[in-house]
Amino acid sequence: MMGELTGRTVLVTGAGRGIGRAEALYLAASGANVVVNDPGVDIDGHGGDEKVAATVVDEIRARGGQAVADTGSVADWADAQRMIELAVTAFGDLHAVVNNAAIEVNKGLERLTEAEFDDVIAVKLKGTFALSRWAAAYWRGRVADGTRTDRAIVNTASGSGLLNPLPTQTNYASANAGVAAMTTVHALELRRLGVRVNCISPSMVRTRLTNPVPGMDQAVLDGELDPKDPSVVAPLVAYLVSEDCPLTGQVLSVRGGSIQVNHGWSRGAQVNKEGQLWTVPELAETLAAMQLEDPFDRLATALGGALGIHGRDEFETMINAELDKN
Question: Cα 170–176–181 angle (5° rounding)?
């Protein structure tokens, strides 16, 4: 592992804690120069603590790595531009951006405020766009100057939005689905500049955002891999930002030691009526006869076992109780 990213500069957002911190430490240990971005805010985006990013930088430097701290907000257009400029000023170039920053405000739809919706979308979706936009502008300028080399963007989504949109996460699920869609668009657009764009989707990883989930604190035996530790995500990110990686336009789920390719929305069963409009009674009869998946069945299958719940009705009861509580 050591040295495989030597000479490459990587900007990681939300790198002060959890998955972002694990990524920053791993990248630096692999030889990369790392810009550690984190304003040190609370889970809901309020507050701020400059020491959060600085602490990770100190860890990297103590291990012989190269890093600088940044405390700007990815949701701020000017801050996003300054992050790119900081990377270039500190290390001479920028080779990759890892868009990891996120906040959460979990509430049922009828209780979610406009500000709570906007704030989560701003950090996760707009923040991913802002960093990618300014990085792409910088890389386009480098190509225009005759300098073309491998560049990479790694976005971060979640199963909430891609596979199992969770109740209470209207804002977070929507933002993550948007990040996955953005990944594909940017992979197509930026190939001409030598830029690869991929997306990771961590699942059941222990962070500030997931600590309240039942089972997250489950211990493992000494010497065994902890599948919920944030470090399980880092090797994939290091590969995706490495110069020899050929992948682009991929959305990859990560759960413990498992990595799975996602294909997004795909076409399912189909009914046809050529040459005429459907009538409402025809649709009522035809669509009702199709095998359509209930979203509660999907959630119970995907998450029930991990939460110690093994029945669809029990799962729906738990979700509804949570919604009524928030």
Answer: 125
This prediction has a pTM of 0.89
Task: Please indicate whether residue 172 is annotated as part of the active site.
Answer: yes
> Does one domain contain both 303 and 155?
no
- How much is the mean pLDDT over the chain? 90
Does 91 share its domain with 185?
yes
Which residue in 26, 138, 172, 239 is the catalytic one?
A: 172
| pLDDT tens digits along 204-256 | 776 666 655 555 466 666 766 777 789 999 999 999 999 999 999 999 999 88
- Of 12, 15, 75, 58, give the one whose Cα is nearest residue 40: 15
Instruction: Count structural domains, the chain.
Output: 2
Per residue, the 3-state secondary structure of 204-264, as one string, reads: CCCCCCCCCCCCCCCCCCCCCCCCCCHHHCHHHHHHHHCCCCCCCCCEEEEECCEEEEECC
Paired sense of beta strands 251-255 and 258-262, if any: antiparallel
Answer whether 200's CB lies under 8 Å from 155's CB.
Answer: yes
Q: Which domain holds residue 224?
A: 9-262
Return d(Cα 5, Cα 1) in angstroms, integer.
9
CA distance from start to end of the chain: 45
309 and 189 in a single domain? The answer is no
Residue 70 belongs to a domain: yes
* Distance of alpha carbon 243 from alpha carbon 149, whole angstroms: 9
226, two tokens: 């902890």
Chain length of the chain: 326
Long-range CB contact pairs, 313-322, < 8 A, 24+: 319/167, 322/167, 322/168
Within 8 A by CB and 6+ apart from 242, the residues are 4, 5, 8
Q: What is the pLDDT of residues 18-31, one digit of tens each?
A: 999 999 999 999 99
